[in-house]
Write a structure and sequence with these properties.
It contains three helices and nine strands, in the order H-H-E-E-E-E-H-E-E-E-E-E.
């Protein structure tokens, strides 16, 4: 009977149509499956290692009739980004590296800042800032939330920053903000409580 039907031109046409439709359906199903798998495949975040030679923290401290400027070096750090957007990270500040860069301060002021009146670097050699949240307000401007661990204290911070780049060529970001030094356990009388900070972060991908 089947051989007879095969000899029927109409039956052969219908059989060819059914076979073709089955192949098309199978191909469409395979494409749909691959698309769904691709949609649920999570691309790993990009990792960056902070360049401690280029990165730094600059500070300005003022008093009634004068001000002083200086820097801290970074010891280490790492950042993460997704799709060119900063998502997290942390960096370690070398407190022992504090320098005074204005002519009126010099080594004498640097020594005082390292003493127990200020950072007490004999007991506290480093501070760590860990990012807990990044909120983009436009393509490059962000609000960063995080925690600063310094002198045995954990200080929550939130400040504006600018992410200049986060791509295959590297990461560069800047932050400009003020911090109350008394929150860091620095209560020495004389200088203004507010200290202006500028953070420059350079990092290489990988």
């Amino acid at each position: 009977m089947y051989m007879y039907l095969l000899g029927n031109p109409y039956f052969r046409i219908q059989l060819i149509k059914k076979t073709s439709m089955k192949k098309i359906f199978t191909a469409v199903a395979a494409i749909a499956l691959m698309a769904s798998v691709s949609a649920f495949t999570v691309k790993p975040a990009d990792n960056y290692t902070v360049n401690t030679e280029r990165s730094r923290v600059e500070w300005i401290g003022a008093k009634a009739k004068d001000y002083h400027t200086g820097t801290f070096n970074l010891k280490s750090g790492s950042l993460t980004a997704d799709g060119g957007k900063l998502t997290g990270g942390s960096f370690v500040i070398d407190l022992t590296s504090i320098k005074v860069t204005d002519a009126g301060g010099g080594e004498r002021l640097a020594g005082h800042l390292k003493s127990a009146d200020f950072f007490d670097v004999a007991k506290n050699t480093e501070a760590t800032f860990t990012i807990s949240g990044v909120n983009y307000t436009n393509a490059t401007n962000v609000e960063i939330s995080g925690n600063l661990s310094i002198k045995g204290l954990n200080v929550p911070l939130k400040f504006p920053a600018v992410v200049r780049s986060a791509d295959d060529k590297g990461f560069f970001g800047q932050a400009f903000f003020s911090i109350d030094r008394t929150l860091l356990g620095i209560n020495y009388k004389g200088p203004a409580n507010d200290v202006q900070l500028t953070v420059y972060l350079f990092a290489a991908k990988g």
